[in-house]
Structure formats: C-alpha cells, structure tokens
Predict the 3D structure of the following.
Amino acid sequence: MLKTWRAEFRAGQELKRRIELERWEQEKRWGEEDRAARQKALQDNAVDLSEHNATLKTAAAVSYLTLVCHEDTWTFMATEAYGIWKPQWTQSDPGGPYFCPDYSQASKFTASPNLPRRRITKEDNGMQTVLLSGHNLVRLLDVLREGSAADDVVRSARCVRLYNKLAEFVALVDPDAPAGQTTGVEFRIDDSVDLS
C-alpha cells in the first residue's frame, strides 16, 4: 500500500510539474506574441522624421489657428505639450478667476503655454475653441510626435491620431499663397459616426 501511495504521489507530482511547465511555456508564448504586437503597433504609430520636419517648417509660419475640439482632447494635448493643464483653465497666466487658484501649480509648466486670457472659449456641450499660434502648433506637433513613440500603446495611439489631425491642417497651408488670407481659419477635431 505504501508503494502504491508513493507511486501515485510521484505521478501526481510529475503531472503538476508538467502542467506548470506547459503553463509557463504558454505564458511565455503569449508574452512574446504580446510584445511583438505591441512593437508592431508602436512602429505603425511612429511618424517619419523627414515628414515631421517639413510639417514643422510649414506650421511655424502659421499666424494662428482656431482649433475646435473637446475639452478632454485639448487637456490631453496641453498636458503633453506644457506639462500641466486642468480642464477648467481658460488661460495660462495666473491671476484670473479661471486659472488654478494654487499659484504653485504655475511653476510645474515644462514650457510656456503662451496662451493669454480669452484664448480658450468653452461651450456647453464640452467643446471648446482654442486660438493657437504657429508657435503653439509647432510645440504640439513636436510633443505629439514624441508621444507617438511612447512605450504606452494607448498614449502612442492618441498622440499619433492627434498629430495626424493637426498635420491635416498643416497640409492645407500653401506657403506660396499671399499672406493673411486664411488667418485664424477654424479647424475641428471632431470625428463622428456617419449615420447616413
């Protein structure tokens, strides 16, 4: 009886080891597949440097752009570009009633947002209008391109999508056209479902 019990115990232990080994090998395969899929997603999100440089050169000469987007979209872009931004803010200079009352927050900016008073107008439906200078547009494009190569796939996807939307606007700019014809043109980031 002891021999039978010992044989069953050893068989059980061997079965446990085999199951653990198979589980470890399966998890290893899944991890490798996940890594490969993640790397492919990050590669797909990468913005080509030569295209980026051409986009920045064109964007730098834009006087200003009236950007219309959801406040969450702007908050994400502004946080990426300036290091800190809160949805309720409508300006970047402290002192107004719509800026953060805690002035220590202003020191957390990693770059000057350069958005004076009344450059952000909020609507009741969550959309808002932001007046962006060429300087701001270049800054946003640059940090969104940088974010498109981030290790976080979700952040990378958001950054590349928003980069492409802003690059769509820049692609419409004609550097040879007479200056001032489209100053402050409105550009919407507002993809919708086609209900037709």
User: Anything to note?
Assistant: Residues 96-103 have pLDDT under 50 and may be disordered. The longest strand covers residues 64-70.
